[in-house]
């Protein structure tokens, strides 16, 4: 069967993957702390049909052979951890990270997940939880008679209670960071899990070392650039069309054979 | 049997090979840093006694189109595009040095700088290893500056420099893994004039219009070969009929 058909098929499936990545990015345009993905393509192996430099007759050699490519494949998707813009919400427990680092979230399974989404709330016992209700790690419990909460750039959480005007510190936010954040496994719900590829987590207080600072009353927007995604969508669609054109051309060639011979 | 039939058959087969080459270019129309392959047909005369009427067609890849693609802005600090001419040196799967223009770099779990397809990027002394860092900057000449985790903003360290080369395009050939190598296997020398642009990626240099036009041309050429086969069949049928009538 004609090789061009199968090559074009790999092109179609790669563009299909690219479109899926684009559509997921666009779907998460308004998701707090979402980091966009990008599909990485590589050309597949080449097959030598005729070796360059082989002898075509005694004393003469072929100046160039023929090596045919077998198409394209998706080498993987990469999460792009660029900073999203900040959206000031003036909510006490909305926290954005400006710079590197992830909030640590205790999953019900006992494992720690990492998130850039800082939309926190209190549960019935006054503990700080994320929008799924999972506990922030290390746990911080806000006393019942709290009148105001303030979170510093360095992650200190302090409250004023009752009639007292003096603030007292009740906890400290601790961020986690990775050598290769792109290697984290996205598990949905704005959360990521550590993998071999991401490296081990290193923890530290916000605004210290390389960690970013925590900003109270703001949320980090998704870093998806809608214009860029739409442009990607156009180029993906056109590439898809061209590959399907290859398939129809090859189909015409083969049907010509069956009709005429 | 009529030799015409076999000549047309090889013509059609070789046209299909060229079609595959163009299909591969189109399949990689969105692959970062991809360089399109050319396909051309060569006339191969069968040399022997008597009248040399038989000239077979043979498709071959004379070269790879090494012209630059378009630089696309991505804003990611580890995306690099080579300006104008030049190549990024990487270590291929078998350990040899190869060259690519696909600069979607990332750092793996042990701190090694790799391309998007996972090949280690070569620096001044072999693959580049980076310390755990909070900020990585790649300068125009390939110098990598990092802010090591835990250090102050004014304590930047120069770690290594990406090996950038610019060998004579005539000596470059594309290998089976799609990477380019210098003919003979020698490593190319560092060229200080090659410049990188951080935050950009180079698109594929496939010209979709010319590829599609070539496909149309090849498709018609293929049909002509089939027509010749049909003619051969008709000739044979006519000859057989004449002989039948005589009988």
Defining key terms:
heterodimer, A: 261 residues, alpha+beta, 7-stranded antiparallel sheet, 22 strands, 23% helix, B: 247 residues, 3-stranded antiparallel sheet, 2 helices
Strand sequence of the main sheet of chain B, in spatial order? Answer: 6-5-14
Mean of pLDDT of chain A: 88
Number of β-strand runs of chain B = 18
Structural class based on helices, strands and sheet pairing of chain B: alpha+beta
Oligomerization category of the chains in this entry: heterodimer
Count of discrete alpha- or pi-helical segments spanning 4 or more residues of chain B:
2
Rg over CA atoms of chain B: 26 Å
Major beta sheet of chain A, specifics? 7 strands, antiparallel
Tell me the series of helices and strands of chain A, N- to C-terminal.
Answer: HEEEEEEEEEEEEEEEEEEEEEEH
Largest sheet of chain B: 3 strands, antiparallel
Instruction: Report the portion of residues of chain B in β strands.
Output: 25-35%
Helix content of chain A: 10-25%
Please report the total strand number of chain A as a whole number: 22
- Are there runs of chain A of 5+ residues with pLDDT below 50, and where? none
What does this structure look like?
The complex is a heterodimer of chains A (261) and B (247). Chain A contains two helices and 22 strands. Chain A has 261 residues and is an alpha+beta fold. The radius of gyration of chain A is 27 Å and the shape is elongated. With 247 residues, chain B is of the alpha+beta class. Chain B has two helices and 18 strands. In chain B, the strands form eight sheets. Chain B has a three-stranded antiparallel beta sheet with strand order 6-5-14, with no helix packed on it. In chain B, helix 1 (3-27) runs antiparallel to helix 2. At the A-B interface, helix 1, strand 1, strand 2, strand 5 and strand 6 of A face helix 1, strand 2, strand 7, strand 11 and helix 2 of B.
């Amino acid at each position: 069967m004609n090789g061009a058909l199968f090559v074009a098929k790999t092109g179609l499936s790669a563009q299909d993957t690219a479109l899926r990545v684009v559509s997921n990015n666009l779907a998460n345009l308004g998701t707090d702390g979402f980091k966009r993905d990008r599909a990485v393509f590589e050309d597949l192996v080449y097959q030598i049909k005729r070796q360059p430099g082989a002898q075509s007759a005694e004393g003469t050699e072929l100046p160039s052979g023929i090596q045919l490519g077998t198409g394209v494949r998706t080498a993987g998707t990469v999460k792009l951890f660029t900073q999203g813009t900040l959206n000031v919400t003036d909510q006490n427990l909305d926290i954005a990270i400006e710079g590197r680092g992830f909030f640590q979230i205790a999953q019900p399974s006992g494992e720690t997940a990492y998130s850039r989404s800082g939309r926190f709330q209190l549960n019935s016992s006054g503990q700080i939880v994320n929008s799924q209700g999972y506990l922030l790690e290390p746990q911080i419990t806000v006393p019942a008679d709290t009148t105001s909460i303030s979170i510093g750039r360095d992650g200190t959480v302090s409250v004023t209670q009752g009639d007292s005007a003096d603030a007292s510190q009740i906890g400290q936010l601790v961020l986690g960071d990775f050598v290769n954040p792109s290697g984290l496994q996205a598990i949905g719900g704005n959360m990521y899990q550590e993998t071999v590829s991401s490296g081990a987590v290193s923890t530290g207080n916000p605004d210290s070392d390389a960690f970013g600072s925590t900003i109270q009353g703001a949320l980090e927007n998704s870093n998806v650039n809608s214009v860029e995604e739409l442009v990607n969508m156009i180029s993906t669609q056109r590439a898809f069309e061209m590959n399907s054109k290859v398939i129809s051309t090859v189909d015409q060639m083969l049907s010509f054979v069956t009709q005429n011979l | 049997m009529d030799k015409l039939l076999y000549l047309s058959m090889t013509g059609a087969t070789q046209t299909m090979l060229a079609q595959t080459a163009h299909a591969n270019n189109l399949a990689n129309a969105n692959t970062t840093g991809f360089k399109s392959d050319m396909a051309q047909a060569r006339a191969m005369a069968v040399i022997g006694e008597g009248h040399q009427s038989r000239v077979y067609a043979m498709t071959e890849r004379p070269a790879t189109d090494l012209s630059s693609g378009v630089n696309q802005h991505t804003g990611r600090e580890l995306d690099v595009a080579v300006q104008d001419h030049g190549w990024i040196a990487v270590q291929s799967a078998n350990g040899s040095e190869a060259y690519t223009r696909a600069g979607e770099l990332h750092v793996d779990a042990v701190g090694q700088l790799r391309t998007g397809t996972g090949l280690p990027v070569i620096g001044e002394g072999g693959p580049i290893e980076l310390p755990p860092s909070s900020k990585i900057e790649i300068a125009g000449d390939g110098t990598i500056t990092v802010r090591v985790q835990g250090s102050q903003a004014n304590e930047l360290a120069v770690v290594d420099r990406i090996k950038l080369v610019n060998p004579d395009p005539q000596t470059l050939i594309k290998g089976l893994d799609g990477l380019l190598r210098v003919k003979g296997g020698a490593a190319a020398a560092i060229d200080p004039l090659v410049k990188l642009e951080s935050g950009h990626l180079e698109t594929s240099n496939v010209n979709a219009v010319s590829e599609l036009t070539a496909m149309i041309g090849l498709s018609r050429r293929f049909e002509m070969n089939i027509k010749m086969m049909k003619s051969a069949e008709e000739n044979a049928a006519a000859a057989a009929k004449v002989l039948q009538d005589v009988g």
